[in-house]
Amino acid sequence: MAKKKTWKEMPPAARAGVVAVGIAQVSLMLAAQRDISRRPAELINGPKAAWRLAALINFIGPMGYFVFGRKKPAEAG
Fold first, then answer.
1. Pairwise CA distance, residues 1 & 66, whole Å
2. Is the terminal CB of the chain with fewer CB neighbours within 10 Å at N or C?
3. 38 in helix, strand or coil?
4. pTM score
5. How many domains does the chain have?
């Protein structure tokens, strides 16, 4: 089995990739949390608290919220 590389052993391109993915993940999570805070509960499928917790799960949670958690304008009215 290959030994895991430490941060210092990683090439600069790999480090930049890790930082970029981290920034994207945090940005997506913050966008989902902000949307959950600002959107009325009747425009969200399910309880807000459940979506808040789900949005903390890497990329899957926020993407799940944006795809499945928000009601479409036609469904809301």
1. 38
2. N
3. helix
4. 0.83
5. 1
